[in-house]
Design brief:
The N and C termini lie far apart (64 Å). The strands form 2 sheets. This protein has a 7-stranded parallel beta sheet, sandwiched between helices. The protein has 11 helices and 9 strands. Helix 4 packs parallel to helix 5 and helix 5 packs parallel to helix 6. It is of the alpha/beta class. The N terminus is likely disordered. 37% of the residues lie in helices and 13% in strands. Strand 8, helix 10 and strand 9 form a beta-alpha-beta unit. The protein has a single domain, classed as TIM Barrel (Alpha-Beta Barrel), CATH 3.20.20.
């Protein structure tokens, strides 16, 4: 039987104690709708483009698509890993679609994006983890939209020698790789990854090309404590990471890791103040913060901050 069946974390058992507490009022969002939202969806559907907005059930999809902002997800919609927080399907991926980079580039041009975020599923089945596919996507976007800045949100390329260097050589404007959570929670939240490998990956980007902005993010509400959050900030600064994002974890289904707590907006403000005091160029910290939310505006802020640093 050759059919590939999507399985969303079959190893997790539906337990009554896996139910998250009720969402507070500050996490309520309206259902996505509107003419521009529909136009964006139609264009992406016509070009057969997968977005992390849909696959990860992002709460910001209505806001972003209503402004024709979408985060492209390459290399299919089936991930080789089964992280306890993620709603992307887990299973055996299909072969790479070699036409995908051009289709993504055409969608970027048709949406007239000033800044684009490209992410992917984990592809541990590929010799280079999909590095070359990232490179081809970057090159094709530059061909069709030479004035568009490119932000990539990559897998960790664990045990894929030479893969990271290949992507760095393509010179994305922003290189993002999320640590996701504190190291203590990795065995349950991100079992296929290694905290210090991810940290070293981001440090390597800066070592090879200091002109590339580096970015990473964590979710809160998974069971971490405040001191652990501050330690992750210190670890990120040791890796010379420029931009930190902190957002509320939301449980996609009953089979995923439960929400241990809903962090109050005032606490997110505290995290932002502490992070900025540690030397990050930019920090986005709020209940709805996600890696690519307001990415275009944030990139403009990063450029201005760098210019000011040079001038001063």
């Amino acid at each position: 039987m050759n059919d590939i069946k999507k399985i969303r974390h079959p190893e997790k058992i539906n337990k009554p104690d896996n139910i998250s507490p009720q969402k507070p009022f500050w996490l309520k969002v309206k259902a996505p709708q509107g003419k521009i939202f529909d136009e964006t969806k139609g264009l992406l559907d016509d070009l057969n483009i997968t977005t992390v907005c849909e696959e990860a059930s992002c709460p910001n999809i209505g806001s972003c698509w209503s402004q024709k902002h979408a985060t492209m997800m390459i290399m299919g919609d089936i991930c080789t890993r089964a992280c306890a927080f993620c709603n992307v399907a887990t299973g055996r991926p299909k072969a790479l679609d070699l036409s995908e980079p051009i289709r993504v580039a055409k969608s970027v041009a048709k949406l007239n994006l000033k800044h684009v975020v490209v992410t992917s599923v984990d592809r541990d089945d590929l010799n280079d983890g999909g590095a070359e596919h990232f490179v081809n996507t970057i090159l094709d976007i530059r061909k069709y939209s030479p004035n568009t800045s490119i932000e990539i949100l990559t897998p960790d390329f664990l045990k894929k020698n030479g893969a990271l260097e290949k992507v760095i050589k393509a010179k994305p404007d922003v290189f993002n790789h999320n640590l996701e959570t504190v190291p203590r929670l990795y065995p349950t939240v991100r079992p296929g990854a290694r905290y210090f490998h991810s940290l070293n990956l981001l440090a390597k980007v800066k070592e090879v090309d200091s002109n590339i902005f580096t970015k990473s993010g964590i979710m809160v509400g998974l069971g971490e404590d405040q001191n652990e959050i501050f330690q992750v900030m210190d670890d990120m600064r040791s890796a010379d990471i420029d931009f930190l994002t902190i957002g509320q974890y939301l449980q996609p289904t009953i089979k995923h890791h439960k929400v241990e707590r809903f962090v109050k907006p005032d606490d997110f403000e505290l995290y932002k103040k502490v992070a900025l005091s540690k030397g990050f160029l930019l920090v986005s910290s709020s209940p709805f913060t996600r890696s690519s939310f307001h990415a275009s505006e944030d990139f403009e802020k990063l450029k201005k901050i760098r210019v000011n640093q040079i001038n001063n």
